């Protein structure tokens, strides 16, 4: 296995009511059927935010207008060592579409399962962010 982790840009689309978009991994990919936040691999020399914008256009057909870096997580799966860079986006153009045949669902209290293992610990942190009384 490659010693250095693969950088992955991950986006959390958050509606005004706090609902977030989760997608289901398609057949033929590792962890097919598991739910995750959309995103994808950062290409060589590509900026992480640029990768996120590209992935959202390719996977969901939407254009991200703003995205704030949220957190980073390293996780070692049996098939890959990944460094996940999470961004939260509250502004985008277009309605998400399933351009790669994946299922997706807006979730308030996250009820879909199974969740991708690296995603599980973030749901609790995210709930605090989504449902807190916006103290900024």
UniProtKB/TrEMBL annotation:
Residues annotated as domain Nudix hydrolase: 5-129
Enzyme class: hydrolase
Signal in keyword set: no
Lineage: superkingdom: Bacteria
Catalytic activity: 8-oxo-dGTP + H2O = 8-oxo-dGMP + diphosphate + H(+); 8-oxo-GTP + H2O = 8-oxo-GMP + diphosphate + H(+)
Names of the cofactor(s): Mg(2+)
E.C. code: 3.6.1.55
Swiss-Prot/TrEMBL keywords: DNA damage, DNA repair, DNA replication, Hydrolase, Magnesium, Metal-binding, Mutator protein
PANTHER family per the UniProt record, alphabetical: 8-OXO-DGTP DIPHOSPHATASE, NUDIX HYDROLASE FAMILY PROTEIN
Name of this protein: 8-oxo-dGTP diphosphatase
Taxonomic path: Bacteria, Pseudomonadati, Pseudomonadota, Betaproteobacteria, Burkholderiales
């Amino acid at each position: 296995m490659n010693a250095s982790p693969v950088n992955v840009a991950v986006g959390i689309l958050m509606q005004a009511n706090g609902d977030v978009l989760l997608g289901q991994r398609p057949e033929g990919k590792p962890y097919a059927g598991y739910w995750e936040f959309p995103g994808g691999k950062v290409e060589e020399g590509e900026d992480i935010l640029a990768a996120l914008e590209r992935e959202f256009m390719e996977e969901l057909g939407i254009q991200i207008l703003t995205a704030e870096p949220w957190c980073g997580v390293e996780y070692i799966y049996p098939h890959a060592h990944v460094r996940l860079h999470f961004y939260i986006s509250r502004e985008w153009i277009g309605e998400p579409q399933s351009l790669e045949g994946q299922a997706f669902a807006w979730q308030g209290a996250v009820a879909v399962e199974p969740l991708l293992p690296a995603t599980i610990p973030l749901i609790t942190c995210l709930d605090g962010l989504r449902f807190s009384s916006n103290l900024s």
